[in-house]
Design brief:
Elements lengths: L3 H15 L4 E9 L4 E11 L8 H19 L2 E5 L4 E11 L3 H12 L9 E9 L2 E11 H7 L7 H4 L2 H6 L2 E9 L2 E5 L3 E4 L2 E7 L5 E12 L5 E2 L2 H36 L1
Parallel strand pairs: 1-7
Antiparallel strand pairs: 1-2, 2-4, 3-4, 5-6, 6-11, 7-10, 8-11, 9-10, 11-12
Length: 264
């Protein structure tokens, strides 16, 4: 397994399952409109049906994971233990000057073996004048994490309820990217103000794969445009203004020449 901490998280979730609780894992990745790249984990453990004597064990384990991610890996971490669910959130954000550097910053995070949840990541970007074409695809493999944890070697009485318990647990990977046009997507896309959000259900029994290919087009002022028609309209407007200025200058010159010849 690439990350020892991610293995610990899964073992903790497994421990919760065996105590008749359930868990939910949310992974958020993307780039916002301000060119900030981010990677965020949210781990929620249901402790409502777990013997209170185990609560402190779970709380200490979550605190330990959050502390490591914050102190050693540069994340912002927080733990909420005030309800029937213990919620650990860990987020890392990197500010950038433009989309291309933000894309590379996100790629660095998603391929960092100390922090990534992904077994494979493929990210590529190609730049053109006022346009970025980019692709992101990745794969997670929780069954492999389970096999590496040796959990399958636990006593049969503990594993007997595992399949049933894991069915009540949930997981998602959410991608959010600035987009002018979506070229390819493996899951449903929701668009709002040139931001595309794709939510991928996370499987705990099989590999989870996703892919997003998109185009990002910029106007003259740096704002995101919807298509090349926006750029064309922008250029046409500039051309018309230039023609108008030339026409006015021509008229003024013609009037000046007429006035000069009239004096002669």
């Amino acid at each position: 397994m690439k990350s020892r901490l991610l293995l610990l998280i899964f073992l903790l979730c497994l421990f919760t399952l065996l105590l008749t609780g359930c868990f939910e894992i949310s992974i958020d990745i993307g780039i916002d409109r301000g060119n900030t790249a981010y990677l965020s984990y949210k781990v929620e453990l249901d402790v409502s049906e777990i013997d209170p004597q185990h609560h402190s064990t779970l709380s200490r384990a979550l605190n330990s994971i959050g502390w490591h991610y914050q102190q050693e890996l540069g994340f912002t971490a927080g733990l909420d233990t005030e309800s029937t669910a213990y919620i650990l959130t860990m987020s890392k954000r990197v500010d950038n000057n433009n989309f291309k550097t933000a894309f590379e910053s996100l790629k660095t995070m998603l391929t960092d073996e100390d922090i990534t949840a992904f077994m494979t990541v493929d990210m590529a970007i190609e730049s053109f004048p006022r346009q970025e074409l980019y692709l992101i695809s990745a794969m997670l493999d929780f069954p492999k994490i389970l096999s590496l944890s040796s959990a399958e070697e636990l006593p049969a009485e503990l594993m007997s309820g595992f399949d049933t318990a894991i069915e009540t647990s949930k997981g998602t990977v959410t991608l959010t990217f600035p987009v002018s046009e979506v070229l390819k997507n493996t899951h449903e896309i929701k668009m709002q103000h040139y931001l595309a959000k794709m939510v991928v259900p996370l499987s705990f029994s099989d590999q989870t794969e996703f892919e997003l290919a998109a185009s990002l087009i910029f106007m003259e002022d740096g704002a995101i445009g919807a298509s090349f028609e926006h750029i064309s309209d922008d250029l046409v407007a500039k051309r018309n203004i230039a023609l108008l200025v030339c026409a006015i200058a021509g008229v003024i010159l013609l009037v000046g020449l007429i006035a000069i010849f009239a004096r002669k």
